[in-house]
Amino acid sequence: MVFNQLAGMQTSSISSQLSGCEMRTDSEYSRGWHDLRRREFLFWFFVLSYVPGILLVIVLLNTFEPDLPEHLGVYFSIIWLAGFVWTGLYRQSFRCPRCHRYFFHRQLGFADPHARTCLNCNLMCWAPDA
After folding, report:
1. Is 78 inside any structural domain?
2. Which end of the chain is more exposed for a tag (fewer CB within 10 A), N or C?
């Protein structure tokens, strides 16, 4: 039992301790990629659910309350658009599991929301710990 606990512990090398670099564990990488998957799911949910969602809202409003103002659908569209913008910014604020800088941004303002590698350390998207 004690051996299992010791085997599960991660130790870093002396050279990494002296150089000030932190060793990343596999769980940190997997948590980071899981976070990116969640962010991308939210983003694509708002992108792909807009038209069916607005149609559903319009049908429900016309079915149950025909007296409601016609521009109520516009309010729902604005809320959906705000959610779309928020999830897009939330996705782009993902931090790289390796360097902990923004994955889709460089410091000088360059951004690539479709980047498949970190713009700072060139870590491939979904790459395991190297």
Report:
1. yes
2. N
